[in-house]
Amino acid sequence: MIKRKQLVLGNKTLVDITNDICEPVESIPKKGWITLFLGAKTLMIFYFGIIGYILANGIGLLGVNHPIAWGTMIVTFVFWIGIGHAGTLISAILFLFRQKWRTSVARTAEAMTVFAVMTAGLFPLLHTGRPWLDFWLFPYPNQRGPLWVNFRSPLLWDVFAVSTYATVSIVFWYIGMVPDFATLKDRAKNKIRKIVYGALSLGWRGTARNWSHYEMVYLLLAGLSTPLVLSVHTIVSFDFAVSNLPGWHTTIFPPYFVAGAIFSGFAMVITLMTCVRIGFPKFKDYITIDHMEVMNKIIMTTGLMVGYAYTSEFFIAWYSGNVYERYVFVNRALGTYGWCYWAMVSCNVLLPQIFWFKKARRSLTTMFIISIFVNIGMWFERFVITVTSLHHDFLPSSWGNYAWSFFDGCILFGSFGMFLTLFLGYLRVFPAISIAEIKTVMHVGKDGGHS
Amino acid sequence: MQEQSTESAPENRPEKIERDTNYWLSLEHYAQDPEFLKLGSQEFASSPLKEGEENAIERRDFLKLMGASIALASTGCLRRPVQKVVPYNKQPEEVTLGVPNYYTSSYSDGVESLGLLIKTREGRPIKVEGNPEHPNNKGAVSISAQASILNLYDPDRLNGPRKNLWNEKRTNKDTVTPKWDAMDDEISAQLKKGSVVILSSSISSPSLRSIVSEFSQGFAAKHLVWDAHSNDQLIRARKMCFGAETLPVYQIDKAKLILSIDADFLATFLTPMAFSKQFSKGRREIEKMSRLVSFDSTFSLTGANADLRYRIKPSQQLDVVMAIFSELEKQHKVVVPAALKNTLDEYRNRISQLNMDGKIFAEIAKDLWENRGQSIVMAGGIATQTEFSEGLFCAVNCLNSILGNEGKTILERPAVASSSFADIKALITSMTAGKVKTLILHKVNPIYHLPESFGFAEALKKVDMVVSTADRIDETSQYANYIIPDNHPLEAWGDSESLEGVISLQQPSIRPLYDSRAFALSLMNWGFIAKMGPKRLLAYETYYDYLRNYWKEDVLPKVAKGQNFDDFWAQALQKGFVGSSRATAGKNSAKLEMLSHYKASESVGPELVLYPTVMMGDGSQTNISWLHELPDPVTKITWDNYASVSIAFAKKNSLSEGDVIELDVNGKKLELPTHIQPGLHDEVIAVAVGYGRTKVGRVANNVGRNSYSLVSDQGIFSGQKVTIKKTSRKEKLANPQGNQSMEGRQIVVEATVAEYQKKKSANIHRHHTWSIWPGQEYNGNKWGMSVDLNSCTGCNACVVSCQSENNIPVVGKKYVLEGREMAWIRIDRYYTGTPDNPEVVFQPVMCQQCSNAPCETVCPVLATVHTDDGLNAMVYNRCVGTRYCSNNCPYKVRRFNWFAWNKKIEAPLNMALNPEVTVRIRGVMEKCTFCVQRIKTVKNTARLENRKIKDGEIKTACQVVCPTDAIVFGDMNDPNSAVSALFKDERAYALLEEWHAAPSVRYLSKIRNNGEEKRHSNSEEHV
Amino acid sequence: MRFVFGVICLSALLLSGCKFPSLGYNKGYAPEQPIAFDHSLHVAKNNIQCQYCHNQVERSKHSNIPALSTCMNCHLQVATGKPGIIKLREAYDKGESIQWVKVHMLPDHVHFNHSAHLTRGVNCQECHGPIEKMSRVQQYSDLSMGWCINCHRKPENNAPLNCTTCHH
After folding, report:
1. Looking at the predicted structure, is the pLDDT value of residue C14 above 80?
2. Does A147 reach chain C within 8 Å, measured CB to CB?
């Protein structure tokens, strides 16, 4: 029989595990973390400042114009939503498939999901011309007759999809943490921690009943969030696919978007995990190179899927015999924004191919660099889809270019400030690995340990 | 809230100026009362937060707070601050709140005078439209006439007379507001000293003319008429040829063949509105449509509409005519005198240098001869003011004469040649010599229009007293001792005589906003005070009285002998004009000999062409944002003038779009950005005039460069040698049109007459479209619009009309560059054919009101939905601004309020807003609505009168001003309506038909009468 | 402090807003007028037709507030002694006007047309309630969009339901 790889290295005892994982939560932050956190926080505050300024003066401060009515905000929205996917995929789908290796990365990946969705969720609300009226996007009883929303509009589906996704993944994430909160409470030295974590742990006692209920809820939630992984980005893709704009109006979008989402999501997980490993050396025993390698494999696979989508789009454009469709795709590769397209292709399709080599898959530096490029590439993918399709459409008279402005840059980079602040905070407040679950897989691959 | 517009009267308003007539008694509560203006500025404020009634707020402070915060959450529930309703003191019987009144009036730029209908609401003019009854323009109305409404409400206008506090050197510019009486006394005292000169642009008002002449008698004053763009050479040439000083009155609709040598008669030459009407009339029946051949040294609108366009440079204008002569002679059509023979021989050699196929002239000559007596050869405009212009005009006259067009297609009207540049020089010298004691300037701006080398500014300082009637402190009036602002045409009585001899009344539609005074009245007052001048000048208290009397004594006998004057006057007011065209056939007696001494002369190297644009004209009325944001009909560039050069020229001098080059015209230098213009002659640098005003107002100051500075001292505009020097700088030119070619798509369909005769629907590729959905039923009306691309000349009148009707904001150059322009109707201009010498097609694109509107399905909040009469409604107040609709619109006709443009409207400009159309706030989408407010108004009146809506009763804003009647609007459910007939026309096609958005707009294909069998091969076929 | 208060009210309103539709509308709004004009006196007691004063209501989208000249038609003789009338008279002689407080206020983006409704046989009371009995004018209906729509929806009225009917 094949010998399993060890999921937890360095012959940990149960106590070691608890100590290791609780350490970041219980110890005083080191310089490194503090500097990172302050940096991120400053960026976030700046980000909110910029948003405020845009709210005060008008969305015209961004590069959006006529004919390109959607720009950075939508692009970055899709980007972050995409990032979100890996989390739920790992924690829910891999859970249902009994993938034991997921245990050590699930929590953090899911935290990432939650924060990414939070970051993303702002954009659709902020990009409107009159954000203070966004609540009109929700169907609620009103005194206008009543006047309902347009259920035919993909944007509305989006509102539902994203909000559902956000809710479910937060709940799922939280439920998973309940037992660990209890642990933290028990270990807590001072009163406040006791109270806070006590409250968070919802009076978890660790009784058999607790556990059986917990397991059941967790399973159900896993089952609930699995379809969401697919639905959310499918529906996000409808924003484009359901419109009639050449370059948007394609049936391939749903699978293509989902693949892309998982792709970028795992890339982000890799990016974060490599940092976590550096930040908390003890975690190296739980988040092992093997974990990383598996994820790199996924990155490569999804990268290929995305690559396939790119090519098939071109084929279909040619095959359709539709002048406008054909023009759009030629323009994509060779037009004003050709460079974006090629940046996207090289980052998303070509670079990940290096993972064919085991060495590359297992080298932290390589995977870190690749993951960064993949993230860049995926942002460009959304830019290419949104902007290049819009900037040359049907009537040549109304063609135009995106008027990229200082504020576009601020919005794009500021959103990272928000995300990182939340994430760094999480690392210090919540147990970054599921203590309870990891203990169930500590024997995997060990001699004598049953697998 | 229109009631507010009748705010109570300010006591401080001096009771002066014309006597009230019941037409505007109602408006006496008007004028610049700040309180009123404030109310006015709130009139359209859409945000409840903006309301500011202090006392109210104090009283209900908490409520305000609540209101404010709630308003943020929903416009549905909030308690508004207190607003006041201010009724009239005495109810004027003709004013019904919320119901517009229309007053006939007229507008004149000196040559062309248009009959107008002024739409007023509660006594304030809100739109200028053409008078459909008027024999000249028949409802067509020029861009400048429409835009004059913004001139009326221009915040930069003077609000009263000014006196300049000169120091010795006349350098300081401090002004005070003088008392009228003191001022009049001082001026008339000064006038008594004699040697008075009145310098004015040509006056088309007969009554004012007589006042001026009577005044001149009285004070022995000299009256100089001088226009920046004068037709005096045209007039002189006709005197030389036919013996009388006249201007031609072309009967373009009667001509089968029109040959234009740089005469931009569709845009700026003589009476473009009348010409456009006639031109389209002459081309409506395609089998019999006229042919327009144009020799163009700029890319003029006329050239763009020509069936055959040939690019020349100014110095070749005369060659072209001579070439035709020699061809006629070769073909033994005409016998030319021996003297002329050898001249013609010279020209024959020159023809080779026109680098055109000689056959062209053979054909044109043949064509002209076949159409003897029903063709027109014309040349004119400042592009033809070269050193050869006299020869050119004489040659043209002779050509028309031997073709027998004179008296048939070309009538004439007596005209006075205005003063030449030489006369102005003379004036300046006598001014410098101190021979002019008093100079009265009316509607002239010599310091702007004359090159510095004339030294007008210096000469002005030598004049004891300068009086200007400018409505602002402009380049010239800043040196005047007194500025006595003339009333705006919309504020004052007056009349005007058109080129054709129709006399129109100019009737005020609003009480003067400011403390201004009619020029005529000033002259009368001064005469009265000084007791000088004939009795008639002194007899009347107001210009209105004089006018009435003048009409009684001089006009009535001319046009309606023996009629009772009061009836006559009433009718005149009702109709807006009296009489009809009085153009007569002139003597057809040109002597060919005279041409013999216009010798051919070599000319190599690039030449300058100055040309006026439809927007700016001579730059006298430029402080109007609409005009600057209006794209040039051909180049499509806004907010600038530039040096247009041909592609080859640009290549040769390695110029790219926007490179700033320095033009050097015999020592006179000017820096301009380059624009690479397809279809220019390779040795031409074309520059628009009318830009680069420095003291006209906040809108137009320093927009573009003043190219009048390049005019030679002999008053030669075009054909001057020019050398260029490339600078390192670059300037962006704001062109709202993204791409200049159709990329082989079926967008504008053209066919030649030959093709049309074979197949009426030639070159229209119909798509088979089907839908599983049967489509919506329209039981009542179904509104539709058809646009005849064969009539449309791309003149832009509709764009301005739409802007005025629908309160469309102006965004400025910066934002046009960023693609944020707001025009609801745009005219797409595409080049077809070879880049060097392309043809041009125009296509007005407005919201197509699709039946399967892609925008409607994607709006998440139902802010854009379909109405049961087939309109694509846009509900501004529901719009959240996701802009998804714009993305999904195949025609990209939706416009978004990226910023709070409405906040930029400063008083009193807000008075020009149309109360029927909501002013959009920041963050909402807007678009063409087929003027739903007009539809509603007519629907309501029809219901009030309990009848059906008549076909053609509803006219959209774009349709009503269209000089070529290219746009037809109506009910597609009515089988007899004009529009449904046009929908069935075989030339009709829908834009992007294959996309099956089922638009309610049909375009009628363009037909070219260029004698070719097929449309030129290199215009790509639609796939 | 004020602000906090305001915010509290706001949230309260938002929560209850849907419960009580008319909340936040001007229903029942009866401001004090510069001259205490009494409809009940003029209409109910002296049987003056509405259209005598609001004479343009059948021709125009607006129902005009009568000009002072209209008032003076009677009040040159009638009740000349009353303080209100004296005030009126003074204003009239000065050529000034009375600044009435607007009671019925629609947002600027709503285009209501009085004449259209009158020709369809809707009488004043439908919207203005027992205006003829009011001694001080007060807003009878909440004038919310829902309120308009309700009437337009009734089949017997066959009134248009396009957005453009009121918004353009």
Report:
1. no
2. yes
- Are C18 and A145 a contacting pair at CB < 8 A? no
Our measurement of the distance from residue A411's CA atom to the centroid of its chain's CA atoms, rounded to an integer in Å, reads 17
Q: What is the pLDDT of residue A235?
A: 92
Q: Helix (H, G, I), strand (E, B), or coil: what is residue B593? A: helix
Kindly report the number of other CB atoms within 10 A of residue B757's CB atom.
13
Using CA atoms, how far apart are residues A353 and A360, in angstroms rounded to an integer? 10
Q: With CB atoms and an 8 Å threshold, state whether A67 touches B892.
A: yes
**Are the beta carbons of C144 and A146 separated by less than 8 Å?**
no
| Closest listed residue to residue A399, CA positions, set B743, B799, B853 | B743
What are the C-alpha distances in Å from A428 to residues A23, A288, B188? 9, 21, 91
Contact list, C162 vs chain B (CB under 8 Å): 867-869, 871, 873
* Structure token pair of residue A26: 């219980």
Give me the interface pTM, i.e. the ipTM.
0.89
Q: Cis peptide leading into A227, omega within 30 of 0?
A: no
Both structure tokens of B964 = 């070529």
For A257-296, how does the pLDDT look when each residue is reduced to its tens digit (9 = 90+)?
A: 999 998 999 999 999 989 888 888 888 888 888 888 888 9
The shares of helix, strand and coil residues in chain C, as percent rounded to the nearest 5, are 45, 0, 55
Question: Is A140 in contact with C146 (Cβ distance < 8 A)?
Answer: no
Distance from CA of C148 to the nearest CA of A (A): 8
Percent pLDDT > 70 in chain B is 91
Q: What is the spatial distance between Cα B154 and Cα B376, in angstroms, rounded to a whole number?
A: 41
Q: Which helix (H) or strand (E) holds B162?
A: strand B162-164
Q: Is the pLDDT score of B194 beyond 90?
A: no
CB of B48 less than 8 A from some CB of A: no
In the structure encoding, which two tokens stand for residue A342, read together?
């090629």
The whole-angstrom separation of Cα A241 and Cα A277 is: 40
Query: How is residue B65 written in tokens?
Result: 């707070």
For tokens 């309160």, the residue is B807
On whether any CB of chain C is under 8 Å from the CB of A133, the answer is no
Indicate the pTM of the whole model: 0.87
Q: Which residues contact B981 (CB under 8 A, 6 or more apart)?
A: none
How is residue C153 written in tokens? 């929806």
Whether residue B836 contacts residue A386, with contact meaning beta carbons closer than 8 Å, is answered with: no
Confidence of residue B80 (pLDDT cuts 50, 70, 90): low
Tokens linked to A68: 């390109």
Does residue A234 carry a pLDDT above 60? yes
CB pairs under 8 A between A and C: 22
Q: Which residue has the tokens 């109007």?
A: B624
CA distance B429 to chain C (A): 55
Nearest CA of chain A to the CA of B842: how many Å?
A: 11
Q: Mean pLDDT across the stretch A51-63? A: 92
If one counts every other C-beta atom within 10 angstroms of the C-beta of residue C66, the result is 17
Contact B462/B455 with Cβ under 8 angstroms? no
Q: What is the largest CA-CA distance in chain B?
A: 98
Q: Which residue is closest to C32 within chain B, CA to CA?
A: B82
Q: What size, in residues, is chain B?
A: 1023
Residue B352 has a CB neighbour count (10 Å cut-off) of 9
- Which of A127, A143, A396 is the closest to B741 by Cβ? A396
Distance CA A364, CA B926 (A): 53
Beta-carbon separation of A144 and C18 below 8 A = no
CA distance C167 to B875: 6
Structure tokens at A233: 């980005």
Would you call B65 and C99 a contact, using CB atoms and an 8 Å cutoff?
Answer: no
Q: Say yes or no for a CB contact (<8 Å) between A244 and B72.
A: no
In contact, B373 and B255? CB cutoff 8 Å: no
Q: Decide if B186 contacts B844 (C-beta within 8 A).
A: no
**CB contact, 8 Å: B878 with chain C?**
yes
